[in-house]
Amino acid sequence: MSDQPFYEHHVFFCLNQRKPGERTCCADKGAQAAQEHAKKRIKQLGLAGDGKVRINKAGCLERCEEGPVVVIYPQGTWYTFVDNEDIDEIIDSHIVGGKIVERLKI
SUPFAM superfamilies this protein is in (predicted)? Predict the structure, then answer.
């Protein structure tokens, strides 16, 4: 068994949807569209696949009030985002460039 992670970057977008009137949730803040955008962009960049980058959907990651949230492993870096430009910055800086996006880090 290898000590290397299966993916260079494993990215989880919280897509949790709560019932109306419950606490805030990532699904109400555009998380689904952001996850789809990230998945498409990673494929366009040729970064998808075994040993590369995997974009996944996740249930509640329990950082609801800071959301929407995305976490990138194996680093364990948590981000929030507002729009696709933020997602592109996370991809370009963190995933491609290896540099944390401090302004979006939570």
Answer: Thioredoxin-like (SSF52833)
49-to-54, 63, 64, 70, 72 alpha-carbon distances in Å: 7, 28, 29, 19, 16
The verdict on pTM exceeding 0.85 is yes
Domain boundaries, the chain: 9-104
Say if CB 13 and CB 67 are below 8 A apart: no
Q: Is the pLDDT of residue 1 over 70?
A: no
Q: What is the CATH number of domain 9-104?
A: 3.40.30.10
> Which pLDDT belongs to residue 2?
61
